[in-house]
Amino acid sequence: MSTPTIDVTPMDRTAIRVRVEAALYEFLGRKAESAAAAGLPADVVDAVRSFLFAGGKRIRPLFCVLGWYAGGGAELPDSVVRVAAAVELFHAAVLIHDDIIDDSDTRRDQPTVHRAVADRKRTVHDRSAAARFGTHAALLIGDFGLVWSQELLHTAGLTAAQNAAATPILDAMRTEVNYGQYLDLLTTGRPTRDLDQALEIIRYKTAAYTVQRPLQLGAALAGASPEVLAALSGYGVPLGEAFQLQDDLLGVFGDPTRTGKSTLDDLREGKHTVLLALALRDATPEHRAQLDALIGNPRLDARGAARCREILTATARPEVERMIRDRWLQVQRTLARAPFPPDAVAGLRSIADAVIARTS
Amino acid sequence: MSTPTIDVTPMDRTAIRVRVEAALYEFLGRKAESAAAAGLPADVVDAVRSFLFAGGKRIRPLFCVLGWYAGGGAELPDSVVRVAAAVELFHAAVLIHDDIIDDSDTRRDQPTVHRAVADRKRTVHDRSAAARFGTHAALLIGDFGLVWSQELLHTAGLTAAQNAAATPILDAMRTEVNYGQYLDLLTTGRPTRDLDQALEIIRYKTAAYTVQRPLQLGAALAGASPEVLAALSGYGVPLGEAFQLQDDLLGVFGDPTRTGKSTLDDLREGKHTVLLALALRDATPEHRAQLDALIGNPRLDARGAARCREILTATARPEVERMIRDRWLQVQRTLARAPFPPDAVAGLRSIADAVIARTS
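^ inputs. structure came back:
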C-alpha cells in the first residue's frame, strides 16, 4: 500500500492518528501477505488487526509524535511515525494479555481476543475447552504483538544514532509497564487503604508507560537535550497520573456507552485504585464494612454498584478530583517554562486539557 | 560481577556454556539490583533466574556461538556471548508461556513457573484461585523474559553494522517460533495422519528456531557471506528436524529420570507429532482404533501408555528412526563441502553427533 504523505502539525491530532494507523495497517498487511505466502493460518494477523482497528485512543503514539516536536523535530518523517505505531502495537499486546489476566469479556465495545476465539470454538468444543483454547490462543497472539512491535521498530528506518537514543527509553518503558501489571496482579482483589502503593501502581502502569516514555522516545529521536527530556518528565508524570486517576473515576462513574467498559468490572475485580484506597482510608466504620463486603465480589450487581458509588462519592471522589486538578496545575507550570518550541507547547497544552476533560 | 574471560574454542561446549551462563547471571543480577533500588518485588527476577538456572541444554546459544565461528569470527567477544545469552532468555520466556498452554506441572525436574507460583499461593487462596493467580503471574513473568531478552540484546555492545545484520534474523526467528507454537496449539488434541502438517510444525518450532536461526545469527555477527548463511541452513534445517524427531521419540520412549519430562504428557495431550501422524497413517484398523481411544485422553495411565508404545514401536518408530538417519546424512553432506573454517566444521560435526545420540 502506498500511503500519500499527510502533513502534520502538533495541534492536528487527527492527522497524526491517520498516519500512525496507516503505518500499522501497512505493516500488518505485509505480515498477512507473508503468512499467506508461507501457507500459515491468517487468523493471527486477523486477530491483531481487528483488535487494533476496533478502536483505541492512540494516545501513546500521539505523545511520541508530540515528543518529536518538543525535542525540536521538524516535519514528521515516516520513520518516527513507524516508531509511534510500534508503541501502539506493543500496547495492543499488553492489552490482549491484560484482558486474559482480568478475565474481561469486552474491550473497545468488542469481545476481547480470548473471548472472541473461544466463541468461535464453541461449535467444536464444550464451554470450558473453548475458553481454555481462547486463552491460550490469545496468549500467543499477544506474544506475536510483542514480537511484531519489535520488528516494526527494527524496520522503521532509524539511523544508528536514533536507535541508540531510543532503545534505553523503550527498554525502560517495557519493563515499567510489566512491573505495573505485576503490581496490579498482586494487589487486585485485595484493595487496601495503602495510598502509596496505589500511586506506585499508577506511576508504573500509566504515568511512565502512557505519557512520559512515549514523549521522551519521540524527543530522543529528534536528538533532544537532557533538559528537554527532564521537562518532558515534569509534564508527563503528573499528566499520566491525572490520566489514570480520571480512568479510575470513569471505571466506576463513567458512561459505558462512551467508555466501552462496564462500570462493574473494576468494583467486581477489586482493583487497588487510588479511589478505593482513599475511600477505605476515610470512610466511616459502617461504610468501610459495606465496601469490604461489596468490592471484589465477582457477583456484585447494579444495586450493589450503586451503593458503592454513593459511598465513594461521599468519601474519595472529591479528593481524587482534587488530585487531578493539582496535577493539571503542575502540568501548566511545567509548560509555562519548558524549553520546547511554541507549537509543541500548544500541542501539549491541548492534549493535557483533553485528558483532564475526557469522558471516555 | 566481574567475570574472568574464559577462552573458548568451537569444540569446547562447556566453556561456551559457562560464558553464556555468566552473562545471563550478570544481567539478571543487575535487574535484581534495580528492582530492589526501586522497591519493586524481587519475585519476578527470582522466578526468571530459578527457571533459567534449573537446567536446560543451552543449545540455541551454543549454535549462535558456533555460527560465529562458521562465519569466520575469531576469538569470541563478550558482545556475541551476550547475544547468545539473549536468545536463551527469549527461549525461557517461550517455555514459560508454553508450559501455561500445555498445562505442564514440571520442566527441568522442577515445578513449572505457573505451578510454583500457584503452590506458594495455596496458603492464602483456594486451589482454583491459586491456579489462576499462578497462570497470570507466569504470563507476566514470560512477558518480562521477552522484554528483558530485548534489553540484553540492546546492551550487548554490538556495532551498528552487527545490529543491522542481526535484527532481520532475530525478527524472523521470533515470528517463526510463535507460528510453530500457534500451529501446535491448533493441532494438539487432534493428531491426524497429516504428515506434512506435522513436518511443518517441526520446521517452525524447532528447525528454524532452535538451529538454523541461532547459527545464522552468530554468523551474521561475524559478517558472514550469503554462501555461509545458506550453508548454515543446509546444516541447520535437517539437524533441527532430526532434533525434534528425536525429541518426539524421547517424549514417548525416553527415560524420565534423564529427560526430566513425563512420558505420559505427549500422549495425554495428543501432540500432533510426526511419530503419531505416521502411526495413524500406517496402523492396522484395529491399532488405529486403539490409538484413537488412548491418545489425547488426559487420564491415560501407565498401562494405556505401554499399549501406545507397543503399537508405535510396531508401526512408526522404525520410520522415525530412519528419518533421523536420513537427516543426519544430509548434515554430513553439507559439512563435507561447507565454506566454514575447519575448527567450526569440527564443532558443528560434534554437536550434530551429540544431538542424534542424545538421551535427554
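Strands of chain B lie at 106-107, 110-111. The two ends of chain B are 32 Å apart (CA to CA).
thumbs up if we can close this ticket
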